[in-house]
């Protein structure tokens, strides 16, 4: 499949699709304009800006017009607390339809026993998962011991005792600076306050996950929940090994696949690298490599399904029905054969980007990538992540700064830049384009100097930002975003 046909396959499946989408957006913007023209203007400008920048933020993508349009409907106006067929509100028959479709597509796509499409975001999905585990492993046996069926039946003293147990459980997850997520037990996050937490890291020499070290930490700490998954680790994880570790210490294996769900959906990660057959609960966002609307999703085994299904009222209020509808559309797209081609290209392009950096002498955390992420250590350019991020942005390259393991500059200034390939791959970028991206990034960073001892201020040599932005615009014009879509 050529880059052009790949891009076309998701934004323009029919001959007049782009024209139809153009008409739809033009009409919508006229309506918005009649009420608040500044919002219509900002909406047009956002598309123009996204069209003319190299979007390399690893957690972003471009959803199809079908997904985007599905979010702009009257489903937004409907309350539907509860679950399919069991709502606390009347007249939810159409929400039932779209929620059931989203869950069905998710189950089929990932081979999961159960799927829950209500979480509004990744953190909501993770909170639903954590509380489902606590409900299954602590609350339900606690109620049984007390001979009660429902928490409302408990005396004040028994409820206090059970609440104490719920708040006294252990979680072991990957540390933020080695690539884990805030919600994996980072103390400033609620996950680090709900649980007694401990963090595992990566090998200080290689930057790679050390399963023996994870196993040793698990044996010593004996967590209720072992968390696997990452936001900034540029390598694959062996979930069969994580399962073995969890089983050895009697932990529940929870995998957050928010970043790489598209690679699982597209069957790039299979066998030991596919978390779904190995984990008790898997969560994801739907808007990253999965290329859907902004939202969350929980997959679970039958054991945990009844607990996840109580995400509302446990953690969530009313679901975003319009977003669940868009999840159904996006998951239907991800079930098409072309999505597998797209997912493989995400990984191939990341490799091309990493190779492009390495051959130009740059330093990468773990020395490369085998997923969709490339983590560049910018200290060799004499810069902080903050300076590098800003200099790249001035040059039309949108990235985000990210900590590297044991980062001397901390989580705010950082020493790294995280790159991801899902978005530009959606535009049709191929390996040669990503090599050129590496060249442009290195050109900017090699020509950027810190100002004095500041960790934020910097100077770019004259003409470099404009020259790189012009070169980026050429690449972008050859791989247009939403080709044929006119506002
Ligand atoms: N903010 C997301 C990311 O960029 O990885 C994770 O929450």
UniProtKB/TrEMBL annotation:
| Gene3D superfamilies, alphabetized | Aspartate Aminotransferase, domain 1 (3.90.1150.10), Type I PLP-dependent aspartate aminotransferase-like (Major domain) (3.40.640.10)
Q: Which SUPFAM superfamilies match?
A: PLP-dependent transferases
Give a yes or no for keyword Nucleotide-binding in this entry.
Answer: no
Task: Give one GO term, molecular function aspect.
Answer: methyltransferase activity
This enzyme catalyses: (6R)-5,10-methylene-5,6,7,8-tetrahydrofolate + glycine + H2O = (6S)-5,6,7,8-tetrahydrofolate + L-serine
- Which residues are listed under the site Plays an important role in substrate specificity? 287
- Where can this protein be found? Cytoplasm
Which pathway does it serve?
Answer: One-carbon metabolism; tetrahydrofolate interconversion; Amino-acid biosynthesis; glycine biosynthesis; glycine from L-serine: step 1/1
Q: Name one GO cellular component term.
A: cytosol
Can you cite a GO biological process for this protein? tetrahydrofolate interconversion
**Top-level taxon of origin:** Bacteria
Cofactors named for this entry: pyridoxal 5'-phosphate
The catalytic activity of this protein is classed by the Enzyme Commission as: 2.1.2.1
User: Which residues bind (6S)-5,6,7,8-tetrahydrofolate per the record?
Assistant: 176, 180-182, 302
Q: What residue ranges are annotated as transmembrane?
A: none
Keywords attached to this Swiss-Prot or TrEMBL record, sorted alphabetically, are: Amino-acid biosynthesis, Cytoplasm, Methyltransferase, One-carbon metabolism, Pyridoxal phosphate, Transferase
| Domain (Serine hydroxymethyltransferase-like) ranges | 33-137, 169-440
Instruction: State the Pfam families in the record.
Output: SHMT
Q: Which residues form a coiled coil?
A: none
- What does the UniProt record say this protein does? Catalyzes the reversible interconversion of serine and glycine with tetrahydrofolate (THF) serving as the one-carbon carrier. This reaction serves as the major source of one-carbon groups required for the biosynthesis of purines, thymidylate, methionine, and other important biomolecules. Also exhibits THF-independent aldolase activity toward beta-hydroxyamino acids, producing glycine and aldehydes, via a retro-aldol mechanism.
Family classification: Belongs to the SHMT family.
Annotated HAMAP family: SHMT
How this chain assembles, per its entry, is: Homodimer.
- NCBIfam families recorded: PRK00011.1, PRK13580.1
Protein name in UniProt: Serine hydroxymethyltransferase
Q: What is the lineage of its organism?
A: Bacteria, Bacillati, Actinomycetota, Actinomycetes, Mycobacteriales
